[in-house]
């Protein structure tokens, strides 16, 4: 077996060249072939090969067209491929070397390779901002690379531009850029690469390059390894945070609908809308639907979809059943989270442990795994998890309800700063998930603080573009109007473009304003019964208490951040100054 020597002429595409080299090394290891790779970039040569390569027991593979043409090297090469073809199928690039072919001569064109066809799915926990920003990032990258591309956005209202079966069948690779788990059952047999939404926003081209190099085959639905593949594979392995965000994203519709119905019930029937004396009235009926149906399903949905994220469909029933048990034991959303993870990891472990003959494999996902998973989750929830978590939840609920003065200020400052720290990232979502979960326990003040704090960064950026024109480019001033609309709708991500230019100054400025707004909201005792919507839910009777104080908190936080941004942000370097 001849040793493979590969020379990658990357030129200015150094990152792509390195990725192509890693793809070839991986393919060579999988086939047991010895391989050395030299990468020629505009910055220099990595791992140079001997000048007289290849030897008698070696074969030379030439990849790419970057840099100055090397006619002598091309004459010695056994095969000449493009970077794109190597990234699309590195295994074939290795195996094709064993097929008879004429060496590429000087002046000969590189072997033609059609551009890889890519389909993608983007999603985020709330299904609003990051979902579509990730789609735009991947679309623009594919356009610049010249690759055929289609993206499906799994937003808050379902799948937008859904992929067809034919598009999936024709695709060379599937990119999943999501901060929650996405059902991969329809991608069985396709090469799939999973990552978060943020890498697709900030570096779509790099995500596509890594997908072409590192994607792994998704097992067919119902196969023994399908469940394990749901939360594994190349890219970013799904961890507890991503599983939690999956549960939160599926829980949100229950919180929104239940909270709004409860708010309408109190608006129509007053504070006694849920009393037995009001039975039969429209207000009491609305309260029953919202509290005893919508809110009753919050914890089971949270637990069920955490388990679904970990173990795919077999984990759904054990997770939801564990969530119901946690709710009945008054363990609240903390108990639901615990039950969801117990169910998910128990089912995932059983799936790996239990090996059945091929003829009986179909029993695992519909009988064996749900039954054993439910048994384990139920027993642990009742006998081990429920009572301690219920006691912790009761303590937390009482402490939050009794908070006054400095305690309320501190929590408001913390939740506010978390909202602006990464604007839709893990820290922001952690504070948001905490606040949403407390709604099920009728603790509404943290949700109010979190939402007002999340509205501040984009509104402050928009106000700063009006107050401090010189600090912003013309494009940024135009983007200010869009940021204002996003801020009013509680889409914190609208401030990301402004923070990205000068993060060390802008992010602390935004955190100061958000912390101010959160603290004022908490001290004023503002309660918010719905987890999203921004100012558009404020006019709904009963949705928010102490509305005037809430508006003051929003205005104060916005002004604080806008002034700090104006004072701290660097003035952009303009073309006319550089001339």
Automatic annotation (TrEMBL):
Compartment annotation: Cell inner membrane
Domain PTS EIIB type-2: residue ranges: 118-213
Start and end residues of each PTS EIIC type-2 domain: 240-577
Segments traversing the membrane: 250-273, 285-308, 320-347, 367-396, 408-427, 447-468, 506-526, 547-569
A GO molecular-function descriptor: carbohydrate:proton symporter activity
Domain of life of the source: Bacteria
CDD domains on file: PTS_IIB_fructose
InterPro entries linked to this entry: Bacterial_PTS_Sugar_Transport, PTS_EIIB-like_sf, PTS_EIIB_2, PTS_EIIB_2/3, PTS_EIIC_2, PTS_IIB_fruc, PTS_IIC_fruc
GO annotation, cellular component aspect: plasma membrane
Record's protein name: protein-N(pi)-phosphohistidine--D-fructose phosphotransferase
Organism: Gluconacetobacter asukensis
